[in-house]
Amino acid sequence: MRPAAAALVFDLDGTLVDSEPHYYEANRRVLAGQGVRDFSWERYTHYIGIGALDALAAQRAEYRIATPAEELLAEQDRVYLELIRGRIEVFPGMARLVELAHAAGLPMAVASGSTREAIDAALTGSAVGALLPVRVSAEEVPRGKPAPDVFEAAAHRLGVPPQRCVVVEDAAPGVTAALAAGMRCVAVPSVLRAADEPVFASAGLCFPGGQETFDAEAVLAWVRERADGAAPATDS
């Protein structure tokens, strides 16, 4: 049987859902509890796109925190889950893309640096949660982004070869991970000042204006045009 023409693999935070402000607040509170009082949004943006545990491990080293990263993650998840209950929003353009892809019969998955509990909490009850039952957390694979493990695991669970997968990502580490997995990538930068980072130019399709300029119909058309199993495209 011929493999599926294409599959979509979505990053979650900052791509599918508007969760980064909540993650920043949870991160800020956890660090404040460890005596770090000057953790700004600007500093937080440097950690966007890598796994939550990896980010906390880096912060632990940076701020010389004695508490193990795993304990920091458990506390951050607790705070984050309290913050998002009933407050998380799916970006409208992304909801539209999920609905269009579902109607077209394209397999879909979510591959995120968040814990599985946080992924499920963000999607449960959302407009697209029921359409995205295949979910992979960085805690389920050996390495988080920018390593390709989480995307490779998503492709395996979908039963679709990596070269037929298209990743939708908002951050440079995620784009790097998608390309390392041999997948095409649609980039929708969540931090607009980072849109000129070289890695975004390597994405097959990029919306440098972020979610406000995202076009779900254009993405689906682009995916269909390239659903031939060829090597990842680098045109934009």
From TrEMBL:
Check the record and name the PANTHER family matching this protein.
2-DEOXYGLUCOSE-6-PHOSPHATE PHOSPHATASE 2, PSEUDOURIDINE-5'-PHOSPHATASE
Q: Which domain of life is it from?
A: Bacteria
Enumerate the CDD domains for this protein.
HAD_BPGM-like
InterPro entries per the UniProt record, alphabetical: HAD-like_sf, HAD-SF_hydro_IA, HAD_sf, PGP-like_dom2
Which named protein is this?
HAD family phosphatase
